[in-house]
Amino acid sequence: MSIELFLHFLFCCYYFQSNCDLCFCVWSSYDKDIWTEIAKHLDGKSLVMLATANKWFQRVVMHDHIWKHVCLRDLDVKDPGPVGFKWNELYTSAFDGSHSFMFRQKEKHIDWMRIGSFGFDSPLALLTGKLFVPLKIPQEENAEEMLKSTGSIVLKNVKTGVWIADLQLVRCPVCDLNTCDGTMQILDARHMELFLSEGFLNGNWEYEVIGTQDIAKNANGASGAIFDIKHLNDVSTSKIFNHNLWMGKAKDWQPKSVFTKHAVAVNTNLQENNEGLQVKYHVMKAGNDGEVVSIRVSQQLV
What we know:
Keywords: Signal
Low-confidence stretches: 14-29
Signal peptide: 1-20
Number of domains: 2
GO biological process, one term: reproductive system development
Protein name: F-box protein
Mean pLDDT: 85
GO cellular component, one term: nucleus
């Protein structure tokens, strides 16, 4: 039986229950544990439909541990520990089609796609616009010096837990032409709780540029990546550097992306004789001295 037919059956039961005391007694005798296990195999939309069948199902299906299981399953991440919101709220903010440009700069936005989810176990991130190995962890304190010496930036005080990554296509910030097709892509990563946080919703938290990197003429591609430094040398992270596994072939101009348990990367091949790229690194903090809750790596043709 398909999930649609199954849920239709439940609505029929609800109808008869509402008109028959005997049906209510039979329905109430169903084993809660069995329905809890069934609920764990449904997606968010089906869970909401099931919860509307009657008050008994609402109490069972809307329990936080069910939504936690479903959310972590669909994000394909491990348990991050305590969170600041209910899991059904986190599920909705992750899968309702929301992205950061819906809240800000709608007029600049062109298109987007979901990349996937990854995790920060440590508060240290490595940001880079070049995907060559071996990556060197910068030792300098100044971000511009880091970029100049290694092409990467170490970012401190990152909020640990589950992060969600999207690829955004936006209009060039130096151009206000509506006819512009857009020459700027953004690797846009955020902590799972960002879209529910008051500081983000009321606009008090803003992005700031922490570093700018110029890439010379005839760049092969527009690349950007974010790593949890603790897992930089993990076997799973090495997938990022195996370009043949995920980057497009020559003359494939479609953006490509990849994510692992603790890293995410994007790349778009560029045509020959381009004038080079300018890469900017943006961060959003939860207040002036708060943790980093969102990271953007933007690549703009110059």
